[in-house]
Write a structure and sequence with these properties.
heterotrimer, A alpha/beta (230), B mainly alpha (281), C mainly alpha (135), A: 230 residues, alpha/beta, 6-stranded mixed beta sheet, 9 helices, 9 strands, 36% helix, B: 281 residues, mainly alpha, 0% strand, globular
């Protein structure tokens, strides 16, 4: 098992962001983490990545508690830009290469070349969409056991979305798992094999995608709209 | 991993720190050049000279403060803003993160402190030498002799200094340097601890950090003052003749001790705060 | 090759259907080697597990067989492929007939309309190809 969350609870400035999350994820799956704004998607990913500490409950990543060992196994892509934008892409690649044993520079340079991104340019000189691609390339150039991708396609155009999905599909190892949070369900649902619906900090549904489709005769996108109708 | 963190921290801070310290060296060099000319030899030049001295002192202060502020800002930005997402997801411990910032930050503050001391000394020497040269050659010899460790018998400048402070100028300089070495460590930690304390507050973390900085600064001053009054009390009880001289002689030791003490307190406070669970917004 | 998968039906069923059609139409010939799961998954932009599930299902029906080391192959049993072909054709015709009945068509009407439509289609495509050769 790659990830296990037990009775995970997180309070945030007085309100309950996540309550009693119990979650088990095995290797080799792509799981969609879906939910309306404020349902706790980002909070859950940040807890697993080690950027937030739970109020109660536990997280284990391949048997490790959150710490240097777990961070070595996780490749995390936040939902906003987090790199020093005065740095050149090549400098950031060197930084990643230095700290992560599983980072492969050649793959990063390959993907940059395919997207015509000049690694000797500073991050701040790129458009929003290109920055997002650079961030994704860095996250996917690791041979991690667990990828946490928070809104990986939100800022890029539909044509680039396909490329990004291809990038995700072609870069993870078969024993690794990917947890993707997104609002753009229809764009991404075909690459998922499991979904988790989060509602008010609780798991509403955790099921296999094709089983949900078979039961409801609906796409995940339609099902989501139905479950979370305002 | 600490080694890698140190390397990258050094690399990331290099540009700004080298710029500040080069500017400081340049200022010293220009100061020496100006003092080597005769432009202050007229009586009319006195207001000009005073203005230059004020400007020079202000610049030194600015260099010292800007070094500290840059290091504080780097600590805050790199660990607790967007960049914190990168730093806190690296396979390193919070202690390694903290020590990389502390060690590199301290190296830069030390370098800055030394350059400031050297700058002041260089300018003082040149000014003193020129003054002695133009007025009385013997004074300049006395000035240099004053930096010997033993007080001199003859009634010269250094002896007066010794009578008043209980040190020869060289001893005084030595202790002052000691105080600066430990003091800059405390200054750096004051900022780091303030930023870490600010993280405990839920809103307005940066404003809270500034507030904590003011409080910690005052606490440091109070502790330092209390420790510096202690020798005075002891001497008062002993009722010695040379009250002031004995006081000054002991005071320096107590000041250094107070900074050692605060350094310990702040260091362990910072370690304790860094070990707390991370919660990045 | 485009996959055109809809999201409202299980993806693995659509993949099975797609590969079945590819076999019947001769895109994959009897005895051909199929691409790997990963390649097919990337081509279709679907999860490798879903592709795996579809291929396992095809294997279970016997249309595809796997050799432990060298990969997956299309069955060499051509009668099986023919059977599948007639089965799928029957399904399409049945559905068509159901729909015609819903519109109120009778048996003879339907057959003659079908014949007429095919004739028109044939002549137009013939005409087009004549034009092409006339050029």
């Amino acid at each position: 098992m790659i990830l296990e969350c037990k009775d995970l609870t997180k309070t945030y400035r007085g309100y309950l962001a996540l309550s009693n999350i119990n979650l088990q994820i095995d290797g080799g799956h792509i799981i969609g983490l879906l939910g309306p704004n404020g349902s706790g998607k980002t909070t859950l990913l940040k807890l697993i990545a080690g950027l937030l500490s739970p109020a109660s409950g536990s997280i284990s990543i391949q048997g490790n508690p959150v710490g240097p060992a777990s961070k070595n196994l996780i490749s995390y892509l936040p939902d906003h830009f987090y790199l020093d934008h005065h740095r050149k892409v090549a400098e950031i690649i060197r930084f990643f290469d230095d700290f992560y044993e599983d980072f492969e520079s050649e793959r990063a340079y390959d993907m940059l070349a395919k997207l015509n991104i000049n690694p000797n340019q500073k991050l701040k000189s790129f458009s929003k969409g290109t920055k997002e691609k650079v961030h994704l390339i860095l996250a996917m150039s690791r041979r991690a056991k667990l990828y946490l991708l928070d809104e990986p396609i939100a800022g890029v155009d539909p044509a680039a979305r396909d490329y990004i999905l291809q990038t995700i599909l072609s870069n993870y190892e078969e024993t690794a798992s990917i947890l993707i949070s997104t609002h753009l369900i229809s764009d991404i649902e075909n690459i998922l094999d499991e979904v988790i619906f989060l509602q008010n900090g609780k798991i509403h549904t955790h099921a296999l995608v094709d089983e949900l489709r078979q039961e409801s005769h609906k796409s995940i996108d339609d099902l989501f709209r139905e479950v979370f109708r305002c | 991993m600490l080694r890698k963190l140190l390397k990258h921290e050094w690399y990331a801070t290099c540009k700004v720190m080298v710029a500040i310290n080069l500017a400081l060296i340049l200022l010293t060099f220009i100061g020496c050049c100006i003092l080597n000319t005769d432009i202050f030899n007229h009586k009319d030049a006195v207001p000009m000279a005073i203005l230059m001295v004020i400007l020079y002192t202000l610049s030194l202060t600015v260099f010292g403060i800007s070094t500290l502020i840059y290091l504080y800002f780097r600590f805050y930005r790199n660990l607790f803003t967007g960049e914190g997402y990168l730093m806190h997801t690296l396979p390193v411990t919070p202690m390694q993160l903290f020590h990389s910032k502390l060690i590199i930050g301290y190296l830069w503050t030390l370098l800055n402190t030394f350059l400031i001391i050297i700058s002041v000394l260089a300018l003082t020497f040149i000014a003193g030498y020129h003054f002695a040269e133009t007025h009385n050659a013997e004074d300049s010899v006395q000035l240099l002799q004053g930096f010997q460790t033993e007080p001199l018998d003859s009634n010269n400048f250094a002896n007066a200094f010794f009578e008043f402070f209980g040190y020869t100028p060289l001893q005084f300089l030595f202790h002052l340097t000691q105080l600066q070495i430990i003091g800059s460590f405390v200054s750096l930690l004051t900022g780091y601890v303030s930023i870490l304390l600010g993280q405990l507050v839920e809103k307005y973390k940066l404003m809270a950090s500034i507030g904590f900085y003011i409080i910690l600064y005052i606490v440091n001053q109070i502790v330092c003052s209390i420790l510096m009054i202690l020798p005075a009390l002891r001497i008062l009880v002993q009722d010695t003749d040379n009250f002031l001289r004995s006081y000054y002689k002991d005071m320096m030791g107590y000041a250094i001790f107070s900074q050692f003490f605060m350094g310990f307190v702040f260091y362990f406070a910072a370690v304790f705060l860094m070990r707390r669970p991370v919660n990045l917004d | 090759m485009t996959w055109n998968l809809n999201s409202d039906r299980p993806i693995f069923i659509q993949i099975i259907e797609k590969i079945q059609v590819d076999i019947i139409s001769g895109f994959y010939k009897s005895g051909d080697k199929l691409p790997s799961v990963r390649e097919l998954a990337q081509e279709a932009s679907v999860n490798p597990n879903t592709m795996q599930k579809a291929l396992s299902e095809l294997e279970r029906t016997g249309l595809v067989y796997s050799q432990r080391t060298s990969g997956r192959f299309i069955t060499e049993d051509t009668t099986m492929i023919d059977q599948l072909k007639s089965k799928l054709a029957k399904e399409i015709v049945t559905e068509f007939w159901d729909n015609m009945q819903k519109l109120g068509f009778q048996k003879e009407e339907t057959i003659s309309l079908l014949a007429k439509t095919i004739e028109i289609e044939e002549t137009t495509t013939k005409g087009e190809s004549n034009d092409d050769t006339g050029m």
